[in-house]
Amino acid sequence: MAAKTPSGATTQEKPINSLPPFAPKPASGPLRFREARTSKLSDRPYDPLGQNPSRRLMRAIDLDQRARHDFDDRYATLFRSDSPDAIVPGTVVAVEVVSSRSRPQPSLFAGLVVAVRRKGIMTHMILRNYLAGTGVELVVPVFSPLVTKIVVLKRMTEAQKLKLRQLSGPPKKVDANGKVDAASLKPGVEENQILWVRERPADSPVSFSTIDTLVLRYRQRQKLEGA
């Protein structure tokens, strides 16, 4: 398709290579009904009713869907709770997203991970950054076909992890009567989120001003690898 320049000359637009149609992997076999018996095996939150046959069936379907939609092993590598390289709040991540697979125009968004929600096929994370002084957040569905790449730019050091635990404090929730909810005192309830960074950005484990520098270095590495 031709386009006119300000001088009146016509130029030919560069064709956009479309991405292949999205299709999940074929099923590897029957549903793993027995493997979905416990929440640990299915990497889902604790469910006291997990022995219920209907719950086990839904977990088996969820396991099958994750295996068929995880093309680049991003879930097994970056989001399983037992993975040594799992993304945790405080990690700086860059995400490449396209608005359409037929006419893909990749856009890169980098930010600090403030929450990771491990909910099977609905697993997602929340990235936060500041653009022109305004706080911006992006919810990234892990299994979305529009998310083409997830890259870890920086992980927290041990000192930063210790500082983060001190700032987060023990998770507590207060009900309408002013009493502390006993369920909120269980370990792991809030260890997958640092949403208090919204109100206290200065206490962030990683300075937001360094994210642009990390993105610039990442783009430079991409150019060198593509050269």
What does this structure look like?
It is a single chain. This protein has helices spanning 39-42, 53-69, 74-78, 158-168, 211-226; strands spanning 2-4, 10-12, 92-97, 107-117, 124-131, 134-141, 147-154. By secondary structure, the protein is an alpha+beta fold. Strand 1 and strand 2 form a beta hairpin. The model is unreliable at 10-14 and 182-189 (pLDDT under 50).
Compile the SSE list and pairings:
Elements: E1 2-4, E2 10-12, H1 39-42, H2 53-69, H3 74-78, E3 92-97, E4 107-117, E5 124-131, E6 134-141, E7 147-154, H4 158-168, H5 211-226
Antiparallel strand pairs: 1-2, 3-4, 3-7, 4-5, 5-6
What fraction strand?
Answer: 15-25%
Number of strands: 7
Distance between the termini: 29 Å
- What would you call the quaternary organization? single chain
Work out the radius of gyration.
Answer: 21 Å
Strand line-up of the largest beta sheet: 6-5-4-3-7
SSE sequence, one letter per element: EEHHHEEEEEHH
Q: What is the helical fraction, as a range of percent? A: 10-25%
Biggest β-sheet strands, sense, barrel = 5 strands, antiparallel
What general outline do the C-alpha atoms trace?
A: globular
Tell me the structural class.
alpha+beta
